Amino acid sequence: MRRAFTLIELLVVIAIIAILAAILFPVFGQAKEAxxxxxxxxxxxxxxxxxxxxxxDSDDLYPIMQQTFANGQVxxxxxxxxxxxxxxxxRQEADAVAWANSVQPYAKNYDIQTLxxxxxxxxxxxxxxxxxxxxxxxxxxxxxxxxSYNSTAVAMPSKLTLVWFGNMREEIRGYTYTNPLLICARQxxxxxxxxxxxxxxxxxxxxxSGQMPQNETGWVxxxxxxxxxxxxxxxxxxxxxxxxxxxxxxxVTSYDHPVRSFGPNGMLRFFHTCHxxxxxxxYLSFFRPDSNFDYNFGQNVQCH
Length: 304
Description:
Elements: H1 7-54, E1 67-68, E2 74-75, E3 80-81, H2 92-96, H3 99-102, H4 104-107, E4 119-121, E5 141-142, E6 161-164, E7 170-172, E8 175-176, E9 181-182, E10 205-206, E11 224-229, E12 234-238, E13 259-262, E14 268-271, E15 273-275, E16 283-284, E17 301-302
Parallel strand pairs: 4-7, 15-17
Antiparallel strand pairs: 1-2, 3-8, 5-6, 6-11, 9-10, 11-12, 13-14, 15-16
């Protein structure tokens, strides 16, 4: 006759299963995070490769980084539609010339502009009520200070960021933002350093923080994010992996990332900014194309 399990035997089996689950679940989580990290690195690398293919076909210039109309008007603080025109025929041409769309003939894949598992921000429901065609979400950004900049003039291509998760832990439904960017009213919109002749609206930097403050963490994956540099190589950079906020009166000093002060859990709170002698405005030190990455750390300090 077949003997049934006793209560004790059943409890032992349940305990063994619970122990195995406790051991294996963290391993599965680590494997998933490792796979996500590989995907993140591959995505920014592909976007950088597409941009580098674009450059020779554009007289060695980096792409336009903002929404730009045929009359030269620039809307620096507007999101870029992915793809151009899904939301508005009137803005289609202006969005088409911006980097997120202009490099697509070389990338052939909008999906590399975000990462599965990002926190999605959506504008009002009416924005998406009548799409002209399917749209994509954006989280990755080019270094907007490189807008229309001559690629041969970059001081240190192996140090200067070309592509990164500029929208941090956030993805924008149907759009992306350039981050950081130059604040320009019209084209040409090019970093000129001490030779800048325009007013504040023409030549300075802007930092568009996340649409939702809790998404402004550098912990895109594995408590950091990947960066791709102007020479094409990629590197994963940990960002405040301990999660502790930078104490008041202290600052973080590193040439590996732009952050001067972290909030808790990798929040990007303040950034190093500097100006060279003769410059009227301060720029984000880490993203300056003329930088040799020997700048002074601090806020609104002289670079050298």
